[in-house]
Amino acid sequence: MHRELVERRRWLSEERFTHALNYCMLLPGPEAQQLATYIGWLMHRTAGGIAAGAFFVIPSVFLLLALYYIYAAYGSVMAVAGVPNGFKPVVVAIVVEALVKIGRRAIKNALNLAIAAAAFVSIYFLQIPFPLIVLGAAIAGLLFSSYFPDVAKTSAKNDSEDSSTELSLDEHTRPSRRRVATIAVVGIGLWLLPFALLVASTGYDGLFATDYRFFTVAAFVTFGGAYAVLAYVTQAVTAAPYNWITPTQAVDGLALAETTPGPLIMVLQFVGFMAGWNNPVAGLSPLASGVIGALITTYATFLPSFLFIFLGAPYIERLRGNKRLGGALSAVTAAVVGVILNLTLVFGSAVFFPEGVAGRAEVFAVAVSAAALLLLMKFKVDVLWVILAGGLIGLAGAYFVR
Questions:
Q1: S-S: 31 plus which of 24, 120, 180, 325, CB 3.0-4.6 Å?
Q2: Which residues make beta-bridge pairs with 28?
Q3: pLDDT digits over 42-81, tens only?
Q4: Residue 167 lies inside a defined structural domain of this protein
């Protein structure tokens, strides 16, 4: 987006793009889709925001539905099963790379390190829910950021700087209580209507209504991007009371999402699809139940993102220089490092020790993961090529190694 919108098309300035990105990084949920929505709203009002945000997602919705069906229906076929076996070790390498990159940005001092360590212990050993970890980190940042000056610093540039290409503050970018009320009413209506229909059709505790509620909560509490969202969701849906998918299936879903265009958070659609496929609603085939579950998940995941932009963008600029807010957000980012470390161990154990840590290690998976990590971090090879290479290696391994 930066290359196309700032450098090539010059639709907006570096300052405006950075400002929008920094705001989206503060929000829970998918920052890439939120950034697209923000820029569309900034340039062409609400209609522009809806168009940009929706079409950032729609192509991958249909592409991934096809892949998920192939995975669920034909995953036992050697050729189909072999490809994910090559994908999975690469996914572990990708998560390790993300852990290193985010850690370098987030761990600035002893407070950040302590919060990251506490977050890891909380989620890995104590099984504390992710939202509580985020809340605790934010409180710690608010209370102690003044003792660690670097914590309150953000990556935002001075947004008061003007540029010859800077967009003017049009009427729709100014705060308005009337607009806030209108957007809030419409947003609540857009959430309540589908929920009422789902409750009426399958019951409040039915799979679809439960799916809808769970991913709505996830959209509001998962700060830190797609990996943080996936860590929270994996912790919840691979255990009681949901038990919708296994940790191995979560790795498979991330691999499929990594190989396709669109935001990485589309992996959540995989969770919704497999939940419906594995637990078909009465009267529906596994495919129909899976497709409905996937679409419900996608809708519940992205609806709040539009509301965050349309409601908050005009107001957040007033808080950009607030050091205490910056300290809280920096602490949340540090906590995300601990959460992603947990995700790394969960995925790594599922891929390298499928029979349990006490069981036999998958030497093939370890070797592929090490090679992928070397290509990503040392030689800076594009992630898509590494994933595709892993798939080909997995396919070859299915026929020649096993």
A1: 24
A2: 223
A3: 889 899 999 999 999 999 999 899 989 999 998 766 666 6
A4: no
Amino acid in the structure at residue 235: Q
Mean pLDDT of the chain: 85
User: Does 394 score more than 50 pLDDT?
Assistant: yes
Which residue bears the tokens 């998940």? 297
Burial track 266-275 (b if 16+ CB lie within 10 A, e otherwise):
bbbbbbbbbb
Instruction: Give Cα separations from 107 to 134, 239, 275, 281, 326 (angstroms).
Output: 16, 30, 36, 45, 14
Tokens 């790394």 sit on residue? 344
Q: Give the residue numbers spanning the domain of 354.
A: 2-154+174-400
**Residue pair 257/264 in contact by the 8 Å Cβ criterion:** yes
8 A C-beta contact, residue 350 and residue 342: no
Question: Is the torsion defined by CA of 284, 257, 262, 231 positive or negative?
Answer: positive
Confidence of residue 371 (pLDDT cuts 50, 70, 90): very high
- Among 16-20, 161-165, 289-293, 358-362, the minimum mean pLDDT is found in 161-165
Has residue 262 been placed in a domain?
yes
Contact by Cβ (8 Å): 342, 95: no
User: Could you give the percent of the chain with pLDDT greater than 90?
Assistant: 46
Q: Which helix (H) or strand (E) holds 141?
A: helix 130-144
Q: Tell me the C-alpha distance between 398 and 134, whole Å.
A: 41
DSSP readout, 10-44? --S-HHHHHHHHHHHHHSBS-HHHHHHHHHHHHHH
DSSP 143-190: HHGGGSGGGG--S---TT---TTPPP--GGGS--HHHHHHHHHHHHHH
pTM of the model: 0.76
Asked if residue 160 belongs to a domain, the reply is no
- Residue 150 CA to residue 119 CA, distance in Å, equals 20
CA-to-CA distance for 371 and 348, rounded, in angstroms?
Answer: 15
Cα distance between residue 228 and residue 2, in whole Å: 23
- In angstroms and rounded to an integer, the radius of gyration of the C-alpha atoms of the chain is 21
In the chain, the number of structural domains is 1
Structural domain includes residue 266: yes
